[in-house]
Amino acid sequence: MTREDHPVIRWSEFRSARPLLAQLGSEMLYSPGLGIGFLATVRDDGGPRLHPVCPVLARGLYVFVLPGPKLADLRRDGRYSLHSETFPPPRHDDAFSISGVAVELDEPELRAELTQQFCDERDLAEPWPGFEEHVLVELHIDRALVTLTSPRDGVPAGHTVWRA
Predict the structure, then answer these.
(1) Residue 22 pLDDT > 90, yes or no?
(2) Which one, 28, 56, 67, 137, has least CB within 10 Å?
(3) Does some domain include residue 143?
(4) Is cis: bond before 88, omega within 30 of 0?
(5) Is residue 1 part of a domain?
(6) pLDDT at position 2
(7) What is the spatial distance between Cα 24 and Cα 30, in angstroms, rounded to a whole number?
(8) Quick check: helix, strand or coil at residue 23?
(9) What are residue 147's DSSP bridge partners?
(10) Rounded-to-integer distance, Cα 17 and Cα 62, Å
(11) How many DSSP H helices and E strands does the chain contain?
(12) pLDDT of 57-69, one tens digit each?
């Protein structure tokens, strides 16, 4: 799922490089109290495919992906875009999106840690049946976009774009 010609960084590096944008993005990803976003992938015919996902924000930005079209897209062409916005939508339309390359991980200890965080964020004693089939994917970032309708925390209104 990686593309060597695509410069990307991990969430922790993005947070260090642009802490205000990362903070706003984190708030929008978690505005309903748990991680929610829409993950766009590239179908085999080159068209877009959009999926709701529940990202987990820790040292990196992770998603658990069920084997199927979404995972097949990421394995074939690792490019993605993830979009989230303030929820429930207030009178304004603030939004956050990142794009980059997805990296599939086979790290049992990290998976166990993130599964526990996933359950804790959702007040679950344990993940639902079949969760062990989900594949752990880290979303590496090459571009971030924060859209604000009014200035916030030192970030101006309008579109703020950052590139790795």
Answers:
(1) yes
(2) 67
(3) yes
(4) yes
(5) no
(6) 43
(7) 10
(8) helix
(9) 95, 159
(10) 19
(11) 4, 8
(12) 998 999 999 999 9
Q: How far is CA 87 from CA 4, 26, 28, 105, in A?
A: 35, 12, 7, 30
> Smallest Cα–Cα separation from 42: which of 68, 74, 67?
74
Q: Which residues constitute the domain of residue 131?
A: 11-163
Number of domains in the chain: 1
Give the CATH number, domain containing residue 116: 2.30.110.10
**Taking the CB of residue 76, how many other CB atoms lie within 10 A of it?**
13
Predicted confidence at residue 152, as pLDDT, reads 86
Question: How far is residue 120's CA from residue 31's CA, in Å, rounded to a whole number?
Answer: 16
What are residue 27's phi and psi, to 5 degrees? -65, -40
18 in a domain, yes or no? yes
The CB density around residue 28, as the number of other CB atoms within 10 Å, is 22
Provide the pLDDT confidence category of residue 6 given band limits of 50, 70 and 90: low
Q: Which of 50-54, 91-95, 111-115, 132-136 has the lowest mean pLDDT?
A: 91-95
Angle at 56 between CA 87 and CA 101, to 5 degrees: 100
- The reported pTM is 0.90
Q: How far is CA 116 from the centre of its chain?
A: 18
Within 10 Å of residue 19's Cβ, how many Cβ atoms? 11
